[in-house]
Design goal:
two-stranded antiparallel sheet; five-stranded antiparallel sheet; globular
């Protein structure tokens, strides 16, 4: 039996101590992974997930994300993430999120922009055939501003004590979770992306 399509999809989680940062809270990297997971589950439920794209040699990719949190979930705390499609056009789909604590109080929001990429050509695919999803866009607002386009990033990383430096350029929208963790930890440890020392 096929699951009914929902305009707003919600998933509940429990934050284990092993998932926490040293302060006993959810790290931003785990939150972003959870956003991707919930978006994937909702896309699958709507019939626009991986199974519907694989035969076309296409896959969803996260292009942009903006997160605003009042507080992060704490260890041994239940929390929920709700998501809904905000808009869809020929090239992009916007998806919003609401993060709630175990008592149902809103503790944060996120806004994302997604594209479908052709896995053979590595080009953005036309998703006009998915415009029927508009009938599942709820009358619901997200207070987070729409994320803007990203500019190239230059990060300076010291290589050794002789003050030699290694410079590399990239885009913040890398999909690799290890790279996202590197960027977050670099910032927390005093390296400031975009600032040459």
């Amino acid at each position: 039996m096929e699951e009914a399509k929902q305009a707003v999809f919600e998933e509940e989680y429990f934050l284990t101590p092993a998932e926490c940062n040293p302060q006993g809270r959810m790290p931003i990297t785990l939150l972003i992974n959870r956003l991707i997971e919930v978006a994937t589950l909702h896309a699958n439920q709507l019939g626009i997930g991986f199974a519907s794209l694989v035969d076309r040699h296409e896959t969803w990719v996260l292009s942009r994300v903006a997160v605003e949190m009042g507080r992060y979930p704490r260890w041994n705390e239940r929390y929920r993430i709700a998501t809904w499609v905000n808009s869809i056009n020929r090239l992009f789909s916007e998806r919003d999120f609401e993060i709630l604590d175990g008592e149902g109080r809103v503790i944060g929001h996120a806004r994302t922009v997604w594209a479908v990429m052709n896995t053979d050509t590595r080009q953005v695919a036309d998703i006009s055939h998915m415009e029927w999803v508009r009938e599942f866009i709820p009358e619901r607002e997200c207070p987070v501003a729409k994320p803007g386009r990203l500019r190239p990033l230059t990060i300076i990383v010291p290589v050794d004590k002789s003050n030699q430096q290694m410079v590399f350029q990239s885009q913040l929208h890398q999909r690799n979770p290890r790279y996202r963790r590197f960027l977050v930890h670099s910032e927390l440890n005093g390296f400031h992306p975009g600032v040459k020392q």
